[in-house]
Amino acid sequence: MNLEMIDASFKQKLKAEKPIISLTVTACILLIAKDYFGSAFQIYPLLDYFNFDKILSFFKNSKDAHFYKQLYWLLGCYLFYLFLPICYVLFSRRKLSEIGWRLTFPKKHLKVYLFLAFIIVPVIIIAATTERFQNTYPFFKFNPLIHSWQHFAIWETGYMFQFVAVEFFFRGFLLFGFARFIGPYAVYVAVIPYCMIHFGKPLPETIGAIIAGIVLGKMALASKSIFPGILIHCLVGFLMDCLSTYHKYF
């Protein structure tokens, strides 16, 4: 009888924890897939194994090989940070609006986001003058002596949409997903992997990702929308790319 009660209790707890287990495992799988298959050079062994020689040669030897490699990276972001998480949410019978996918947000929060932009812009202007940031951004190593401005425009358009994917995954899928179980403490759970994806970037940016992750996370929960965070992220990314390019070549 005691064993039956223990078994029933275990099954009840497992059933209650099933949604958070599913969310955690799915998030881990997506992060692993993005890290191991999200860059073109990481699929070279697969292309070679399946004798996709033309595709392999395209990525390695074409005139715009670097440009296409970076476009592949963008596609990886869209797939693992946006498309597949959206599929998971819909499969879980939840609405996208429940995880911050809505344009509307309280107008009183607009002042906070404008204040954030007011603080961030001067920091970006100063950071863009440093060699470390210039060597990092843009990810597409644009050179006006080699590439056309069409390359730059295509890259920046795709790069801005990449921030939609990033914000959706970390401030939508993860944040609102875990908030169902641990409330506002989900902000601190989501900021850990967000900080980790900045490893390898300039140290000030990686440290700044912790602050930005917490602030944008709290604001996303309060406003129930990730779109203001997307705009902030796009502003930062576009400004850094433009200023870094300017200081390197003009």
How would you describe what is shown here?
The chain is mainly alpha-helical. The protein has one domain. The chain contains 10 helices and no strands. The protein has helices at 2-37, 44-49, 53-61, 65-91, 110-127, 131-136, 149-182, 186-196, 203-223, 227-249. Helix 7 (149-182) crosses helix 9 and helix 7 (149-182) runs antiparallel to helix 10. The chain is globular and about 65 Å long. It starts with a helix and ends with a helix. The mean pLDDT is 91.
| Largest beta-sheet characterization | none
Determine the N-to-C terminus distance: 80 Å
Stretches with pLDDT under 50, minimum 5 residues: none
Indicate how many domains the architecture comprises: 1
Share of β-strand residues: under 5%
**Helix amount:** over 70%
Shape: globular
Overall residue-averaged pLDDT value: 91
- Secondary-structure element sequence? HHHHHHHHHH
Helix/strand-derived class? mainly alpha
Number of strands: 0
List the keywords.
single chain, about 250 residues, mainly alpha, about 0% strand
